Amino acid sequence: MCSKFDIDQTNSVLLKIAKKTAFTQNDFDNIKKITELLQYILKIWSEAKGGKFTTLDQSFNEIVNKTVLGLRNPANSIIGFISILDEDNLTSTQAEYAQTIKKHAQDLLSSLNDLLDVTKFESGKISVDARQIELKSYIDDLIKLFSEKQKEKITFNVQIDSKIKPYFLTDTQKLRYILQTLIHTSQHLVKEGEIKISITKINNHLKFEISSDTGGIAIKEGKNIFRPFEITRIEKLRETNLTALSFTLVEKYINILAGEILFSSNQNNGFKFIFTIKGESMSQLESTLSSLPKPDKHNKVLVIEDDYATSRLLSNYLNKWGYEPSVVNTEEDTLEIIERELFLAVLLNIELPNTNGLELLKKLNEHPNLKNTPVIVSAVEADQQRAFMLGAVEYFVKPINYNYLVEVLTNYKLRKDSNILCVDDDLPTLNLLKQAVDSAGFNALAENISAKVMDLIKDKDIDLAIIDLDMPHPNGFELIKIIKSEKRFSNLPIIIYTGKENYQEDLKQIDGLFEELFDKQSTNIEDLQEVMNSMINRYETPPPAEEVIKKKDVIKILLAEDYKHSQIIVTRLLKKNNFENVIVVDNGEDALNYAKKEKFDLILMDMQMPIMNGFEATESIRRLEGYKDTPIIALTAFAMKGDREKCLEAGATDYIPKPIDSKEFIDKVKHYTHEEA
């Protein structure tokens, strides 16, 4: 196959590519992307050679960005197929070849990821995502990772200034990249001996010093180490797993964290990396307070409880997790408060004195202000059947398991935090839609000018859209296609709510892009609200396992979790972020059995489960062929000190405490599945 392109007015390039088998459409697509990238690079080289320099504009960055994203998919596929090939009975030579291919594909992927981040810097799209870390644990985990690989050849001497508070607020992913790059480089410079790592505090900056008295490179070699591709010229660093842009990114990351970096070295007489980053150090108490969710209008919880000790305990616990409790102890006070306030949920002690608790439950569920508000019942003696028949969504036998209670509330809060986009150029209709969404307990994002919709939702998470068809440019058909063309909205459910006549023929142009169609003249608001609820609730239901197993070339996730509301929370978060292919099991044994017959890209493992707990399941899965490097994220309720270490010792890749922080959870899922964050 040949591809020809011009690089200037007098020179052109003929690209010839040969293959033993027939070219596929995927090959053609990838070759086209490579050709576009080569054309731009050679054009710049030609201009530079002639003494002319053209400013790299936004369009070039976009070309590089799109090309890199296109090349990452085949690189990921190569790694995936080699992993499958590893499970076959290969000869030792074949296995060696397979591992070489896999290593080169992983190196390519690292280079592509670094190039992608460089283009983000060039286009100003990089940002700082500050999160808190426990500094000592964070550093210990990194050192442990490097120590295991080096065994006893290299020792680490870590010193953290006692004046530094235990917790630190910074961009943890960028700091990890910086430290991994510098420690990895240090290992190659030293080969054998001691690497010192010291961390001190200077005003509101942390100062990191990574050094050794042995090893090193010539002063001349290290002078420009942070320039792109400079690392490839340093002989001692050619065998590292670093990319040609690794040190460039380190410097850029440090700069964006309001710091600076210096490198000094003498041939075989030692070296020193010194860098600073800005951040906020915190005590354990400050850290705990800052991590709690802030109360908002969807955090109010009504507690109906006559026992003072129980109500106080409940209030303290709810406050701790960012909820705003209102406590009443009689039926009269209950009926009065629900007339003037709205709540995320109601916690009802069904055994109130001088009150028929079941009758009160019935009144609560029939009250218009609580139409979409879950009522959670508690009692000393179990009587779930009658409570569920009268509308309770959950039943706790006292003493209440507060861990589970917070999971239930988190589930309903996630549902009520759903955003519904409403678009209609007729203002009275738009106001009616907004009221319907608000009364259903969701957040309405309303817009009557269709041309402004994309600006309205550019930084928003949308769970459902209700769109009119008959509008000025862009009309409803065009707007639906524009919204669906964005990757993050590709699975967004859309309801068409229109008064347009004779639209049937026009619907063909958006066939498959919407879920429901309602006629304004014949639809009542109750029907629309019912469909809204079902659309929002569908995020909670995973697809059938057989359906997931049949699919090829998709990201597959296994969730092992025994508690119903935790299953719903995780499934909802995954599906809202386009991770559709999830298999859910409720014990470690089932998780192990699925892992034996299917290859998953990511496993989310609750550590406290019946039959086989998560620790045992993780250890067993790690012993399976093909699961040595599969990311496993441990989920543990209300983590105690030492839980994190236990999870990692069992074979988990990472760890997330419950209640789950939505952003942290999705960031980690995207990180380990190599999806765009």
Write up what this structure looks like:
- This is Sensory box histidine kinase/response regulator.
- It holds the Pfam family HATPase_c.
- By secondary structure, this protein is an alpha/beta fold.
- The protein folds into 5 domains: 2-122, no CATH class; 131-284, Heat Shock Protein 90; 294-399, Response regulator (Rossmann fold, 3-Layer(aba) Sandwich); 418-534, Rossmann fold; 541-673, Response regulator (Rossmann fold, 3-Layer(aba) Sandwich).
- Strands 4-6-7-9-8 form a 5-stranded mixed sheet. A 5-stranded parallel sheet has the order 12-11-13-14-15, with helices on both faces.
- Helix 19 links the parallel strand 21 and strand 22 (582-585).
- Helix 20 runs parallel beside helix 21.
Task: Please render the helix and strand layout as text.
Elements: E1 2-6, E2 12-16, H1 25-49, H2 58-86, H3 92-122, E3 131-134, H4 135-150, E4 154-160, E5 167-170, H5 172-190, E6 193-202, E7 205-212, H6 219-222, H7 246-256, E8 261-266, E9 270-278, E10 280-282, H8 284-291, E11 300-304, H9 308-320, E12 324-328, H10 331-340, E13 345-349, H11 357-366, E14 375-379, H12 384-389, E15 394-397, H13 402-416, E16 419-423, H14 427-439, E17 443-447, H15 453-457, E18 464-467, H16 476-484, E19 494-498, E20 516-519, H17 525-537, H18 545-550, E21 557-560, H19 564-576, E22 582-585, H20 588-597, E23 602-606, H21 614-622, E24 632-637, H22 643-650, E25 654-658, H23 662-673
Helix pairs in contact: 1-2, 2-3, 3-7, 5-7, 13-19, 20-21
Domain Response regulatory: 300-413, 419-535, 556-673
Protein name: Sensory box histidine kinase/response regulator
Keywords: Kinase, Phosphoprotein, Transferase, Two-component regulatory system
